[in-house]
Amino acid sequence: MKATVQPGRSRSAGFTLMELSTAMGLMLILGSSLVAMLQQHVTFMNLAQRQSFLASEAPKIGNLVGRIFSQADHYLVYETHDAAVAGAVPVLAGGRAVRLFFRAADQSTEIRIISAQAIAGGVDLRFHHTLADGSQTSWSISDRLSDATFAANQGILTVSLFGPNGEQITYGGGAR
Asked: Exposed (0-12), middle (13-18) or buried (19+): which is 16, by Cβ within 10 Å?
């Protein structure tokens, strides 16, 4: 039997060596550019994750601490939480606790303490309050810090927060 060739078709169907080489070259270029883009994306995501403290946690802490500082009538900075509770000699800088004095509605003075306390894996910034019955209550402002220090050496109460990746941000406020 004799094979007949239809008009307009060549005897062998397929791609030439030049067409295959061009297609494979384009696929290699496309693949390598996709790998480079993926690497860049992973690097960017790691950077964004390392900076998440400054982007998300620090503004929340700053907002809360700023509101608390602005409502206080006056304040004293102490080396430790225990020194703040005992009313020991205050310091001007490098403190780990601040004792805040608030004027109540009946014109009495209420005392609250914000302190940086060491926990496993970092520092817990806590707000402490003594209730009318003498019991103590506290809640965590943030437990994602590596350190926090208070200072009042320039007439302004400041808190310096140190994030888990070496970030540092300082918030200031003062009494009314």
From this structure: exposed
Structural contact between residues 147 and 132, judged by C-beta atoms closer than 8 angstroms: no
pTM, entire model: 0.70
Mean pLDDT (the chain, rounded): 86
Compute φ and ψ for 5, nearest 5 degrees.
-105, 125
Residue 36 zone, left/alpha/beta (φ > 0; ψ -120 to 50; rest): alpha
Using one digit for the tens of pLDDT, what is the confidence trace for 16-38? 999 999 999 999 999 999 999 99
117 vs 81: CA distance, rounded Å: 8
What pairs with residue 87 in β-bridges? none
CA 98 to CA 84: how far, in whole Å?
7
